[in-house]
Design brief:
By secondary structure, the protein is mainly alpha-helical. The chain has eight helices and no strands. The longest helix has 40 residues.
Length: 247
C-alpha cells in the first residue's frame, strides 16, 4: 500500500484550519447552549417552576404512578404470606399501604384518567370497549380497597374468617390490577399523544403536575415513593437483591 506523507507546512496549515473550525464550532455551540439555557430559565421563571425541575410527559407520569401501585402489590404479597404462615405482621402495614392506594391511586391517578384520558378516547371513538372495562375495574378496585381497609387492624386480622376475607380481597385486587395496569401501559398511554396532539399533550402534563402538587405538596410523587419505601423497610423487603433467586 502506498502511503502519502504530508508536507510539514501543509500539515501545520491543516492543524490551524482545524483549530479555527473547532473554535468556531465551540463559539456557535456555546451561543446556542447559552440561548437554550436562557429560554429554559425564562420559561421556568414565567411558570414559577424550579430551574432544575425535570419535565415528565403525561404517559411517563401515569406509568410512574403504576410503579407505586406495583410496589404496594409486592407489600401486600408479603403481608399475605405472613398472614397465611401465621407470622408476625406489623399492625400498620395494611392500613398505611391501603391509605396510599386510596389517596394516590384511586383519588389521584384514576381520577386523572377518568377526567382527562377516558373522555378523550371516547369522544374520538377509540378503545371504547377497553375504556368501559377500565372504568368498571376502577369501581371494583375502590370497593376491594374499602374491604381491605375495614379489616386492616389487629382485631380483624385475628379473626380467621375476616383474615381469609382480606386475603381473598387482596388476591382479587392484585389479579385485576396487574392486567389493568399492563393494558394501560401498552395500549392506552402510548396512544394518548398521537390522539391529542403536541400542544394538548403538554397541557395535560401541566394539569397532572398541578393536581399532584395540590394534593401531595411540592414533594408529590417522590414523597409517596418515600412512604412506600418505609413500608417495605418495615417488612424487610426494601433491598431489591432479596428478590433475586439462587440458581
Amino acid at each position: 500500500m502506498r502511503v502519502t506523507r504530508e508536507h510539514p507546512r501543509h500539515r501545520s496549515i491543516a492543524v490551524v484550519s482545524r483549530g479555527m473550525a473547532t473554535r468556531r464550532e465551540l463559539l456557535i455551540t456555546g451561543l446556542g447552549t447559552t440561548a437554550l439555557i436562557a429560554c429554559r430559565h425564562g420559561a421556568a421563571k414565567a411558570g414559577g417552576e424550579r430551574e432544575d425541575e425535570e419535565e415528565v410527559t403525561p404517559a411517563e407520569d401515569l406509568m410512574r404512578e403504576h410503579g407505586v401501585l406495583r410496589r404496594i402489590l409486592i407489600v401486600w404479597a408479603e403481608a399475605v404470606r405472613r398472614l397465611q404462615a401465621n407470622e408476625s405482621l406489623p399492625p400498620d402495614v395494611l392500613a398505611s399501604s391501603t391509605a396510599i392506594i386510596r389517596t394516590f391511586i384511586h383519588d389521584y391517578h384514576e381520577h386523572n384518567e377518568e377526567q382527562y384520558l377516558f373522555p378523550r378516547f371516547e369522544a374520538a371513538k377509540r378503545e371504547v370497549p377497553l375504556i368501559q372495562t377500565l372504568r368498571k375495574q376502577h369501581e371494583i378496585g375502590r370497593a376491594l380497597t374499602d374491604r381491605i381497609a375495614a379489616a386492616a387492624n389487629p382485631a380483624a386480622l385475628g379473626d380467621p374468617a375476616k383474615r381469609a376475607g382480606v386475603i381473598a380481597s387482596i388476591a382479587d385486587f392484585t389479579r385485576m390490577y396487574r392486567a389493568h395496569a399492563a393494558r394501560e401501559d401498552t395500549v392506552l398511554f402510548p396512544a394518548l399523544a398521537p390522539l391529542v396532539g403536541h400542544k394538548e399533550y403538554e397541557e395535560l402534563g401541566e394539569k397532572f403536575e398541578e393536581d399532584e402538587h395540590k394534593r401531595f405538596g411540592e414533594g408529590g410523587f417522590e414523597q409517596v415513593v418515600t412512604e412506600v419505601a418505609a413500608i417495605e423497610a418495615t417488612l424487610g423487603i426494601a433491598d431489591l437483591a432479596t428478590f433475586t433467586p439462587t440458581l
